[in-house]
């Protein structure tokens, strides 16, 4: 994979870092995407954003997405 550099650009005053939260998930067997996700998370954290990473022992599979969606829905909209 090419050496990808992530840069966060745009109006910084739109939302504060405490108001934004990025929930990112990837399968450990999605090598290219997993590396890109890790780099994006690092760039977001460097920009002061709240980032939660969830990795799964899976590849690019629909059932992993279903689990991640259900877990993140509960985190975003607690009962």
Q: What fraction, in percent, of the residue positions are helical?
A: 25-40%
How many E strands?
2
Rg calc: 14 Å
Q: Tell me the domain tally.
A: 1
Helix/strand order: EHEH
> Looking at the structure, what is the overall shape?
flat
Q: Strand order across the biggest sheet? A: 1-2
Number of helices: 2
Low-pLDDT ranges? none
Proportion of residues in extended strands = 15-25%
The structural class is alpha+beta
The major beta sheet can be summarized as:
2 strands, parallel
- Mean pLDDT, to the nearest integer, reads 82
**Gap from first CA to last CA:** 41 Å
Provide an overview of this structure.
The protein has 79 residues and is α+β, with helices and mostly antiparallel strands. The chain has one domain (21-76). The chain is built from two helices and two strands, in the order βαβα. It has helices spanning 31-46, 62-76; strands at residues 21-27, 50-56. The protein has a two-stranded parallel sheet. Strand 1, helix 1 (31-46) and strand 2 form a beta-alpha-beta unit. The longest helix has 16 residues, at 31-46. The mean pLDDT is 82.
């Amino acid at each position: 994979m090419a050496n990808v550099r992530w840069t966060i650009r745009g109006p910084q005053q739109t939302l504060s870092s405490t108001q934004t939260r990025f929930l990112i998930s990837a399968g450990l067997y999605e090598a290219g995407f997993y590396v890109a996700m890790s780099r994006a998370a690092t760039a977001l954290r460097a920009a002061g954003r709240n980032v939660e990473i969830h990795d799964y022992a899976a590849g690019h599979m629909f059932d992993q997405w279903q689990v991640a969606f259900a877990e993140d829905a509960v985190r975003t909209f607690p009962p």
